[in-house]
Structures are given as C-alpha cells and as structure tokens.
C-alpha cells in the first residue's frame, strides 16, 4: 500500500519526539509499503527542528511544512496548528496526485487534522484512518481546566465528532475508550487498540556510554551505597514530579538518591522546589541511545501522574515502555483505567498526588533484595516483548486499516 500519515509533531531518532510515527512507518516500509509523513517544521516536542521541504529518512518520505516558531500553549501554538492544517488542506490535491495514497491517517495529537486528511483521502479515493493519542477536547478540559464553551474546545469537539463519523477506521492508543467513543457516535466495529511500544533492536547492542555528568551523578550515589531512584523524560505538569520532590524531602535522611534526566516547562520550578535537597540531582536530557545505559544504572524507575478523571480511559506512556524494557523495578504513582506495572508485576503502584504513598513505595522497593527487584524487572521486560514491540504493533495497525 501507499500510506500517507499526517502528524504535526512527527519526529525521528535524530530529531527527537514524536517517535511513534517514525517507528510505525519504518516497520511498514520493511513490509514493502510506501510511507509518506506530512509534519510541521516547528514542534515543541522535538530536540531539533528540520528544514521545510522533502527529506528521506530510512526509506520514509517526510514532507516538512513550514510553520512558525512557538512556545507554551497560547495563541502562538494555536497559530502554528492553523498554519499546518491550512497548508495540508491547500495542498490536498498535490498530495493526492503525488503520493496517490491508498490510506490516509490523521494522527496529530489534536483532532483538527481530520478535515485536511479527509480532503486528501476523498481526492485520492483512499481509506481514512483517525488515530487517537489523547482524547481532545477532554484532555484540555480536564487537564488544563479550559471551559467547554471556549471556541478552541468547540472546534476540537466538532473535529472529534467528524472523525468518529467519517473515518473508515479509528485506532486508539488508550485502551478503555469504548464507551466514550460510542457515546460520541463511533461504531465500535471500526475501533482498534494499538498502544505505544519499543523497538527491540534498540536494546540489543551495547548502549553508548553515558554523558560524563550523568555517569558522575550515578557513581556518586553508588559510592555512598544508596538506592538510586531515576527518572528520564519530560518535566511537565502531567508528570507529577513535584510529588516525587516532596517525597525526596521526606526521605532526605534515608539512603536514597534521586537522579532526574530531562527537560520541560516545569524543570526550573522543580529545581527551585528541590533547593536544599542534596540527594536530588537534575540533569539535561540525554540522547535516546543513552537511555538504556541510564536505566541499567538505577535501582528504581519512577513514573507519576496527576489524579484526574481523564485517565479512566487508560494511559499509554512511552517512558514506561522504556523502563520495562530495561528491566527496571518501577514505582508507578497512578489511578487509571489500565496499569501495565500491576498487570506485568514489574513494580509497585501507589495512589497519585500523595508524597507519603510514594515514600512508602520507594522504601518497600529499596528494602527488597536486588535479586527480587531484578525479577520484577524481568517480568516487565517479558511483558513488553510479548505485547509492545513495534513489529507487533505495526502489524496490528495494518490489520485495523484493512478491516472491512
């Protein structure tokens, strides 16, 4: 097939997140399909921005559309979204002619790309697929407190309804969305669940050595004989790192150190919150290739969430897949419709937003023999290899595309 995937934030290993479009597309090209990704030249989640134009990455044809720079979630980001969607709309005829897609996938985090994707699909006589990363407009309403009557929310609501009505297939990364989508008009026979995952070959080779500052921070904790709690990923409000910092303050007299690697809107505030905590170390992001080495050097990996009703539909975090694939014992601070940590037995789950519960969980894991933590980690790794590798997920996605 010829597959056209529209994802505003698509990236690559060299450019940074989002990785999912790249990994799915690479598997599809390996199966003999032709894949074109249409993405914006500016994205807040990428480490490096590409130049506008056409670029071939590992057999995948990327079309980078020129969009303005932005930061935060205000008017500048809305303008960036508008510029991207309007260019896909205006260039629909050319995309339909040049790519001649059999399938068009609308895959940006927000749902408004369904309109230009539908336009391309209709011009090309292609199947239309809508991929759900987050449930917009519920996400900005429940996570950011936006009013349901806000014009942007009304626009998202309209786009979501359009997608559930007109898409030939809907693919969701979230596993517990059936009742919600049915209430919004989706025929559930068109719904498939394809979660996030990992690439097995990324974990087969010996990882490159850690950057010197990261290696030094880990070695300093090891010399003191302390249990090392690690975090690798974005530092934003949804990640509940303030709860981890509050827990670290309660544990400052215990032999537990914290090494946090990453960046994000909340990093500066979190560092201020951690002022005076000698056993909490913040470090800049590391290349994706170094993540396995970092995770192999810690004792417990932390992942946390806010306590919000939205997670009743399930969660699909990339970093948790990395933690599990690395064989880490995981402390999961969450209340959600699904919990891979509990399902796989790879760690402990505690209530979200509760520093004392995080303390108790960390102390329990720290008290376990190292061999028992390793056994937890191996259960997580086996779970991911069975259910969450991109060869498996890409095949599942293709099955969803082709279902009648």
TrEMBL record:
Domain Glycosyltransferase subfamily 4-like N-terminal residues, every copy: 16-197
SUPFAM superfamilies attached to this UniProt entry: UDP-Glycosyltransferase/glycogen phosphorylase
Pfam families to which the protein is assigned, alphabetical: Glyco_trans_1_4 (PF13692), Glyco_trans_4_4 (PF13579)
PANTHER family with a match to the protein in the record: GLYCOSYLTRANSFERASE, GLYCOSYLTRANSFERASE (GROUP I)
Membrane-spanning residues: none
Gene3D superfamilies: Glycogen Phosphorylase B
Organism of derivation: Ideonella lacteola
Recorded superkingdom: Bacteria
Name of the protein in question: Glycosyltransferase family 4 protein
């Amino acid at each position: 097939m010829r597959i056209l995937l529209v994802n505003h934030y698509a990236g690559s290993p060299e450019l940074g997140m989002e990785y999912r479009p790249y990994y799915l597309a690479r598997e599809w090209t390996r199966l003999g399909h032709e894949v074109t990704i249409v993405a914006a030249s500016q994205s807040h989640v990428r480490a490096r921005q590409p130049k506008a134009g056409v670029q071939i990455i590992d057999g995948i044809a990327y079309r980078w559309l020129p969009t303005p720079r932005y930061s935060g979630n205000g008017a500048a980001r809305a303008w960036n979204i508008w510029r991207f969607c309007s260019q896909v709309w205006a260039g629909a005829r050319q995309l339909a002619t040049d790519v001649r897609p059999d399938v068009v996938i609308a895959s940006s985090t927000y749902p408004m790309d369904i309109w230009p994707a539908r336009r391309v699909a209709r011009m090309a006589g292609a199947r239309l697929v809508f991929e759900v990363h987050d449930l917009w407009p519920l996400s900005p309403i429940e996570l950011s407190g936006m009013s349901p009557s806000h014009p942007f929310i009304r626009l998202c609501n309209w786009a979501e309804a359009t997608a559930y009505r007109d898409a030939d297939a809907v693919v969701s990364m979230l596993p517990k969305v059936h009742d919600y989508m049915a209430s919004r008009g989706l025929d559930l026979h068109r719904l498939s669940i394809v979660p996030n995952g990992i690439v097995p070959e990324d974990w087969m080779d010996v990882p490159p050595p850690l950057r010197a500052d990261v290696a030094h921070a880990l070695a300093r904790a090891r010399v003191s004989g302390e249990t090392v709690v690690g975090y690798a990923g974005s530092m934003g409000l949804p990640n509940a790192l303030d709860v981890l910092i509050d827990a670290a303050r309660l544990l400052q007299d215990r032999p537990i150190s914290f090494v946090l690697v990453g960046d994000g809107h909340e990093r500066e505030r979190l560092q201020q919150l951690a002022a005076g905590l000698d056993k909490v170390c913040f470090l800049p992001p590391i290349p994706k290739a170094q993540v396995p080495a970092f995770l192999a050097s810690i004792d417990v990996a932390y992942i946390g969430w806010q306590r919000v009703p939205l997670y009743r539909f399930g969660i699909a975090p990339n970093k948790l897949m990395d933690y599990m694939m690395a064989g880490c014992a995981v402390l999961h601070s969450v209340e959600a419709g699904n919990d891979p940590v509990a399902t796989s037995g790879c760690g402990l789950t505690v209530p979200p937003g509760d520093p004392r519960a995080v303390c108790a969980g960390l102390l329990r894991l720290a008290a376990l023999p190292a061999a028992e933590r390793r056994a937890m980690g191996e259960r997580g790794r086996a779970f991911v290899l069975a259910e969450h590798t991109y060869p498996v997920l890409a095949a599942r996605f293709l099955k969803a595309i082709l279902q009648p």
